[in-house]
Amino acid sequence: MKIYTKTGDKGTTSLFGGTRVPKHHIRIESYGTVDELNSYIGLLRDQDTDKSTRELLVEIQDRLFTIGAVLATDPEKEKLKNGKDRLDIPKISNEDVEKLEKAMDKMNEELPEMTHFILPGGHQSVSFCHIARCVCRRAERLSSALYDIEAFDDRVLIYLNRLSDYLFVLARMLSKQLQAEEIQWIPKKS
To answer: Do the beta carbons of residue 60 and residue 173 sit within 8 Å?
Structure first.
């Protein structure tokens, strides 16, 4: 199978279902940003983390592929002529969201209370986590804008929202595990 098709040479691409849209369409921006996020999650997974964190990151990557597929599907063509869903894959579930919440709750039990904003950084792995969190927020903003135009399964938005929270808590946990300094942001007085 060839990777290049030349069908996008004039600035358009196909959604699942065959609809062609400009490559700068908000739908493409949305799932493209989810793909970027998935790459950063892969970078996080490559860091020296515990086995359960790496396993959850792999599961998150799987869920991000699902989200990308949902966002890449033309809503007018999400059903086949026989009435079945075009995407024959597991959907984002409430259990997927709960898994992130439980992981955050478990990490928060071990973390000191947060009283100020924290400056991103302190260790390369922590910084990667913060970058992933920021990309996740951008994916969420773009997906939310798309949702206002063409609605899709709202659990996608819930999952992205929870994932950015998870990435923040994971950054704090990595700081603790790596004994990296958490620098609080305390605004200077004028």
So the answer is: no
Which residues, listed in sequence order, are joined to residue 20 by a DSSP beta bridge? 14
Q: What pLDDT is attached to residue 13?
A: 81
19-28 long-range contacts (CB < 8 A, ≥24 apart) are: 19/74, 19/76, 19/77, 26/142, 26/145, 26/146, 26/149, 27/71, 27/72, 27/146, 27/150
CA–CA separation, 11 vs 22, rounded Å? 6
Q: Which of 60, 88, 36, 71 is nearest to 159 (CA)?
A: 60
**Rg (the chain; Cα; Å):** 19
Mean pLDDT of 21-45: 94
Nearest to 134 by CA among 108, 171, 100: 171
pLDDT at 67: 98
Query: What SS3 class is residue 48?
Result: coil
Give the number of residues written for the chain: 190
DSSP 69-126: HHHTB-GGGSB-TTS-BS--SPPP-HHHHHHHHHHHHHHHHHSPPP-SEE-S-SSHHH
* Distance of alpha carbon 80 from alpha carbon 84, whole angstroms: 5
* Both structure tokens of 171: 């950054």
**CA 190/CA 186 separation, integer angstroms:** 12
- Compute, in degrees rounded to 10, the torsion defined by CA atoms 84, 86, 87, 93: -50
